[in-house]
Design brief:
The complex is a heterodimer of chains A (about 350) and B (about 325). With about 350 residues, chain A is of the alpha/beta class. Chain A is built from twelve helices and twelve strands. Chain B has helices at about 5-15, 20-35, 45-70, 75-95, 100-125, 130-150, 160-165, 175-190, 190-200, 205-210, 215-240, 250-260, 275-290, 300-324, and strands spanning about 155, 165-170, 170, 240-245. The model of chain B has no long low-confidence stretch (mean pLDDT about 90). Classes of the chains: A alpha/beta (about 350), B mainly alpha (about 325). The interface between A and B is large, with 44 and 49 residues.
């Protein structure tokens, strides 16, 4: 009897949350890989973004599931959220395609699904994040421009077969193809690992002592730069960089010839602000139909180079070394995307 | 022997049904989940739980066969991935009709079984240590899977996952599969083969000296393991509706954990197939409970690990207490 009243009370409280309507939302955040500070920062920024809605009189409660899981484990994340009765799910997905059925189930239950950081094929979800290909193109453009459109370059990539990696490879290849003077002499994989990036760079420098440029992704850039700085070619090579404070500090100190395309950890916070507006029943000015799956809303991609390096460094002052330079849509920015 | 009657009866019950502690833990976890989030015990939520963890249930039962004979198979996740991409790519190549789905599934089951036989030949034929040999064959299978389908993607026909996620006569499809798995287990434990397998696991030399075909028995266990891993792959396709060349790799150690949680000793010679299936559900419920109990995100991995340890200890303590 007691149990039944407890359940009834719980049910009632759930109903009262639902009937409070526009002013109170519960959003589930799912992260399926806990291997980097970037992911931790992503969640922290999203939680802060949710808290900021209080100023608008909207209570946004976030519930988080973040752990190293396999694909079924992350599907379980989504099912747990559905069981809990959330209004929306924001996911950094472990697979581009594996969530189609469970997202369909979410849609049937009236739950909004947004993926961020990696695109998903489900027609029942919206992607809010950066265009990984455009991200790679920006870095490649900078490199091509810095080299005056001619020279030998090498590329150090992440995990072969990973969807984001493939999009990035397509991005720089496209840009370099547009500059006939640029020759890609080799492309290697270093699995998004800083140490492997450093070693790959060492090997490349030994094999091709006359390279002019390096296109390298994410945290591997810090490793690659370490090899470059230790080599006789130091000072003669331009290479893309990354966005963590440690690296930015080094960049400033050693006056590196670098440029970094920013994949900000704030993407989940941006996605959250978009989600809340969608839950309020607002409609996008331009429907999210970009990308290979036709369900993407691409966010602006900041770029760091010599022109704004000092500002970026100042902004990161006092942050821990692993902190990534970030940007996110504020509530006002997000609102501007809606009717 | 002056052992009281009741204790010895209790003891024999536990010896006959080594999955009983696991069943107790399962019930406890169901109750805990129900208290933390009442709706997690709804019909729909339980169906969702089964849908998600059916693949791991098959994988754990698969792993049990090799563990019974004191071997281990660290390639089950890779076999699952390989079968997954083979089936998905075949369906696509054959046009996606009902016939092609059926044919692709049959080929998938065959591929899984062959992978298992290959493991058996490598481990038993070449006399390599199973833990290292299957670790290596797992890498080979992953390589093959990446060759079949280099990037995750390629959807299967909607009918496939609509069936897996749907209902027949108002009963969710996955429940029928669970019943089939239960019938399989019920039949398997009644075969002469399982007794021979346990004998081999208990004392290989003694089994050999008493005239059992040890080599054949062990290879057969690997083959069965491959076969059931293939069924796990079909469940994964049902739940994910797509091909992914690395989808199962993280599941390998979960399958071992499920086997142990289910009351089977890795030293071989005793254990329970049903327990392994229950162990898979325990792992799933632990993950849900950690979330529903409101553990903050930074501590979720930690809490899950501790909870698995507690479940293991609970099982061991109960068993030890009874067998004293």
């Amino acid at each position: 009897m007691k149990l039944r009243t407890t359940i009834a009370a719980l049910a009632a409280s759930v109903i009262s949350i639902a009937s409070a309507g526009a002013e109170e939302f519960t959003i589930g955040l799912s992260n399926g890989w806990v291997g980097s500070e970037w992911r931790t920062q992503m969640i922290e920024e999203a939680e802060a973004a949710a808290a900021a809605w209080a100023d608008r009189g909207v209570t946004v409660k976030v519930v988080v599931q973040s752990a190293n899981v396999d694909v079924p484990g992350q599907i379980a994340h989504v099912r747990n959220f559905l069981n809990q009765g959330v209004d929306a799910v924001i996911i950094n997905p472990n697979s581009p395609t594996a969530f189609d059925p469970v997202f369909a189930q979410a849609k049937d239950a009236g739950v909004l699904v947004i993926s961020t950081d990696a695109e998903v094929s489900s027609p029942d979800a919206t992607y809010v994040g950066i265009d990984q290909q455009a991200w790679a193109e920006a870095g490649a453009e900078w490199l091509a421009k810095t080299l005056d459109g001619k020279g030998k370059v090498v590329a150090i990539n992440g995990v072969a077969g990973h969807p984001a990696n493939e999009m990035r490879v397509a991005g720089y290849r496209k840009v370099f193809a547009e500059h006939p003077g640029i020759e890609i002499v080799n492309e290697v994989n270093a699995n998004w690992d800083q140490a492997q990036g450093q070693q790959a760079m060492q090997n490349l420098l030994a094999t091709y002592p006359d390279i002019d440029g390096v296109w390298v992704q994410d945290g591997m850039a810090a490793g690659a730069w370490r090899s470059i700085q230790d080599s006789p070619q130091a000072g003669k090579i331009a290479a893309t960089g990354e966005i963590r404070k440690d690296f930015i500090d080094l960049w400033v100190k050693d006056e590196l010839n670098s440029g970094a395309s920013v994949n900000p950890p704030g993407v989940m916070a941006s996605a959250l602000n978009v989600a809340v507006l969608m839950l309020q029943g607002r409609e996008l000015k331009e429907p999210a139909t970009a990308g290979q799956y036709g369900n993407a809303l691409y966010l602006p991609i900041p770029f760091i180079d010599a022109s704004n390096l000092q500002e970026v460094a100042a902004e990161l002052e006092g942050k821990p070394g692993f902190y990534s330079y970030t940007s996110a849509l504020s509530i006002d920015d997000a609102e501007a995307l809606f009717k | 022997m002056s052992m009281p009657q009741s204790t010895s009866r209790q003891r024999s019950v536990f010896e006959r049904f080594p999955f009983i502690p696991a069943l107790g833990i399962l019930v406890a976890l169901l109750i805990l989940n129900g208290i933390a989030e009442p709706r997690s015990m709804s019909y729909g939520a339980i169906t969702g739980l089964i849908k998600t963890y059916l693949a791991l249930m098959f994988l754990a039962v698969a792993q049990s066969f090799v563990v019974f004979s004191a071997d281990i198979d660290l390639s089950v996740g890779a076999i699952l991935s390989l079968v997954n991409v083979v089936v998905v790519v075949l369906i696509e190549r054959l046009g996606g009709g009902p016939d092609s789905v059926l044919l692709a599934c049959l080929v998938g089951v065959l591929v899984g079984t062959l992978a298992g036989v290959f493991n058996g030949l490598v481990v038993v034929g070449l006399r390599l240590q199973p833990i290292v040999a299957t670790f290596a064959t797992g890498i080979v299978f992953t390589g093959l899977a990446l060759w079949v389908l280099p990037v995750a993607g390629m959807p299967v026909p909607q009918a496939f996952w609509r069936t897996y996620g749907g209902r027949i006569f108002e009963i969710p499809f996955v429940f029928y599969v669970v019943i089939l798995l239960a019938v399989f287990i019920w039949l398997a434990v009644r075969t002469k083969y399982i007794i021979e397998l346990m004998a081999v696991g208990d004392n290989r030399l003694a089994a050999y000296q008493s005239g059992l075909p040890v080599t054949r028995i062990r290879i057969k266990a690997f083959a069965l393991c491959g076969l059931l891993s293939a069924f796990a792959a079909l469940c994964i396709i049902g739940d994910t509706a797509s091909g992914d060349p690395v989808v199962g790799n993280a599941m390998t150690l979960y399958s071992v954990a499920a086997v142990v949680l289910g009351g089977t000793a890795l030293s071989g010679g005793s254990g329970s197939l049903l327990g392994s299936a229950i162990g898979a559900l325990i792992l799933g419920l632990i993950n849900s409970f950690v979330f529903f109990a409101g553990v903050s995100s930074e501590w979720q991995n930690f809490a899950q690990g501790v909870a698995v340890l507690v479940a293991l200890m609970a099982g061991v303590l109960v068993t030890r207490r009874i067998s004293k």
